[in-house]
Design brief:
By secondary structure, the protein is mainly alpha-helical. The protein is built from seven helices and no strands.
């Protein structure tokens, strides 16, 4: 039981951390403003890991995709074990069941298997919640990337282009033009084809929230177009 409590605490802390990161990124989306007024939240630097810059966004996106893939595999394994709990070894069943029942030695084989199944379902439910958070995180990160890349490569490069057909005020053009030139040159080295493909594959794997996933895939196409313009 003590081991289970410690594991549950670790899982809870991990989920809380992920929730905080997701909330911060969601706030950044709202902080950018609407289609008529854009406030850049991240600077255009790509060559540094310090500060709020696009390199940070891309790094979070890479980690989010990797973690989401890992959690998806773990979730599938847990569900498979729960559906075939009788195929698990007695020792594994006992270890899982001990997180539900205090003394598995007094349980019958049927009870032990049922407790083990409940524990697997608990763990799968936690993974499912984390996957939902990763989905929200990745979709918002892609949106932020698109808005910033568009802002820096279109509106800041040509102030007369403006947002929504209106010229941008000079005070909004705080980005150094050298940084913007570097961004245009270096962005394809950071947002590589394999990374963009991972995002599209991630979106296509989401059977639920297909409308949001389709929108995210469309944003990837827009980012590709901006990089090749």
């Amino acid at each position: 039981p003590g081991k289970c409590a410690s594991a549950d605490t670790d899982l809870e802390v991990q989920t809380i951390k992920l929730q905080i990161i997701t909330n911060v990124v969601t706030y950044c989306v709202s902080a950018m403003g609407n289609s008529n007024v854009i406030h850049a939240v991240f600077s255009p630097e790509l060559g540094t890991k310090k500060g709020n810059n696009l390199n940070l966004l891309i790094g979070l996106l890479q980690k989010g995709l990797e973690a989401s893939s890992h959690h998806s595999d773990a979730y599938s394994q847990l569900i498979h074990k729960a559906l075939h709990v009788n195929q698990l070894s007695t020792e594994e069943q006992r270890e899982l069941a001990s997180c539900i029942a205090p003394d598995t030695d007094k349980c019958s084989a049927v009870q032990r298997a049922k407790y083990a199944e409940l524990r697997l379902e608990q763990l799968a439910d936690t993974k499912d919640k984390e996957l939902s958070l990763y989905t929200q995180l990745i979709e918002n990160l892609v949106y932020l990337l698109w808005r910033h890349v568009q802002y820096y490569t279109v509106y800041c490069k040509d102030p007369t282009e403006g947002v929504g057909g209106e010229p941008l005020p000079k005070k909004l053009l705080s980005a150094n033009q050298d940084y913007i030139k570097n961004l245009t040159r270096e962005l394809p080295l950071h947002l590589t084809d394999p990374l963009l493909k991972k995002i599209v594959d991630f979106c296509s794997s989401k059977s639920s929230a297909s409308m949001t996933s389709s929108f995210t895939s469309a944003l990837v196409r827009r980012v590709r177009k901006l990089m090749t313009a």
